Amino acid sequence: MVKLTFLISISVLTCNLILSVRVYKRADILKLREEVREMFQHAYDSYLRYAYPYDELRPLSCDGVDTWGSYSLTLIDALDTLAIMGNYSEFNRVVDIVLQKRHFDADINVSVFETNIRIVGGLLSAHLLSHKTGMKLEPGWPCNGPLLRLAEDVAQRLIAAFDTTTGMPYGTINLRSGVPPGETSITCTAGVGTFIIEFGTLSRLTGDPLYEEVAYNALKALYHHRSPIGLLGNHIDVMTGRWTAQDAGIGGGIDSYYEYLVKGAILLEKPELMSMFLEARQSIEKYLKKDDWFVWATMLRGHVTLPVFQSLESYWPGLLSLIGESDAAMRIIHNYHSVWRQYGFTPEVYNLGTGEASSSRESYPLRPELIESIMYLYRDTRDPILLQMGEDILRSIQHSARTPCGYATIKDVRDHRKEDRMESFFLAETTKYLYLLFDPDNFIHNPGVRGTVIDTPNGECVVDLGGYIFNTEAHPIDPNMLYCCHEARQGINISEVYSIYQILEEEDNIKFMTMIEANTNETKITQSNNNNNESAIENKTIDHTEPKERSDENEPEQNQVLIKTESRTGYVNLDGTERENANESNLSDLVKETINKYYNDTINAETQENVKHSAEEPTAGSSQTVEVDDIIVPEKSEVQLPSVTKTKEVMNMLPKVIQDFLNSDWKSKPKCEPQKMLERIRREQKYPDHPDVYKYELLLTPAPSFLQRISLAGEFLNKKQLEL
Prior knowledge:
This is alpha-1,2-Mannosidase. Belongs to the glycosyl hydrolase 47 family. InterPro entries: 6hp_glycosidase-like_sf (IPR012341), EDEM1/2/3 (IPR044674), Glyco_hydro_47 (IPR001382), Seven-hairpin_glycosidases (IPR036026). It comes from Bombyx mori (Silk moth). The protein is mainly alpha-helical. It has a three-stranded antiparallel sheet with strand order 5-6-7. Strands 8-11-12 form a three-stranded antiparallel sheet, with no helix packed on it. A three-stranded antiparallel sheet has the order 13-14-15, with no helix packed on it. Strand 11 and strand 12 form a beta hairpin.
């Protein structure tokens, strides 16, 4: 430990001494921006020329290969980068190409995690940015549109993965048939907790709560299964909740779970998610942090198991900047940048004990995490040393990764040998974050000083206020648009500062009480009408000649405000009346009841007809109630089933391969029914709500724009507090 501490101290000291901060003028920054644009264009054009329609480009072979799903992954992943860089004509052209694929119905197995962050996230981001590119929008946008429908089509195919006993998803899905037979139930932590941004966005835009609720339930499941000291392991069995890999860290296999707690809290205004992260951070600081590095330890006791730095951990400083911890983040990023300067790249795994790249994980696949944190921190601090770090990264990639057909993975950071692969995230993330670092005036960085008013089915909506939330594949989501697709929330709304003192005035209170009275009257009217209808039915059977006089006394006025209320139980019969969940019948019971009723009513009708035309008493048999089982259920067969011993003897006679097949879990799972799955999650409530579910002050972080923070403050600050 002494050796490790000494090494770390020397590393940080050396880094601080070597770096002489360059002064960047505006022209210098814009020149670097244009160099990044050319970098993106070279890689993008090479993909179109040599690899499309395959998933990814092979920059050494100058051809393409399918990797994650045979759905032109790089094209979809790069869509919003085109919009951010202002290439609107190419964005619109590619959207037309993507929309030629009307659905993702294909008999292929795909990663649920990767398909969600790259395809669903990419389509949603492109959908929300399409208004900036001059693309023709459908009526009802952003609550409607072809890219949104395509994203929902993919999400519907992924949803079956969540049909587990714990609510945590499988790692692989077949886009046509669901969870593949024999699929392992072991999934990494990030593969469970990286859905709330995409699925939450989808639910808010479409109005279907399914996606957000299953993603939120998976996050609560992970929180519920944390260790007594607040740490999470690396892999978990989604059917049993048993941890199969108990190493705790902030890097690969866990990383985006923590990222989505913070970003999901800000995007969807869920303070409990922020509270979950703050709790986890306390445990991380206590057990995993060693002198501004983060190691791996056992989740149960916090004993160090792997003193290594992973390239994937480089997102952490950027995440801290979102919650206002930029000072701590700057110390950490200096350490990470020192590794970059040592090799010209960050290896996948760097051994902190030896100060060298791991011999088995020495590659650099053009990852974006370090430049992502640099971009976030520069936006928050404007420290010029961050621009120099960004330029270092740009120079390394240009010098060692560029090829005539794109940019190649660095196979070994020690000698800069290349590997024949360019992952889609190079165009989706690495070039995007570099571009945004050197483009401080980009609309993504809007601090909330300007916005755009759009018309939606629910009235006017203000968008483009900034505060964009990036998913873990760098696809930006405009938080304001999530509130354009439903009616305004009840309660305080003070997006405009000048109205802050009028929100609790007597006029508003009178209006609110009027709405309550209107709702009460509506309920009374409904009850009265129901009683009148029952009376009318009774009178109709007694006297058919006396018409019922219609009264308009209890009908509401035309201009009266009414509040639409939901069903108390959530379950309604065909005639609109409510029924309790406990009394819900399955299909077979309903069919049986209907047949019984029909058959017995027919017998009774025939009996009454016989009584009407003859004076004979009905026979006992004619009035007997008949059960449907007596009609449609055949008599039990007298065939004797073979004994267990005989069955085993027959099994032993079969070839071993057939025995293994019959003994395995070969039967396909019942088809997932999303609505029933959602009802089950709501009914079981396996994981209790977090106590901080209404603690909105946790969301007042630097991440939202100014106007968003003012609006959020109105959710819990009253007039007296504001006057103070």
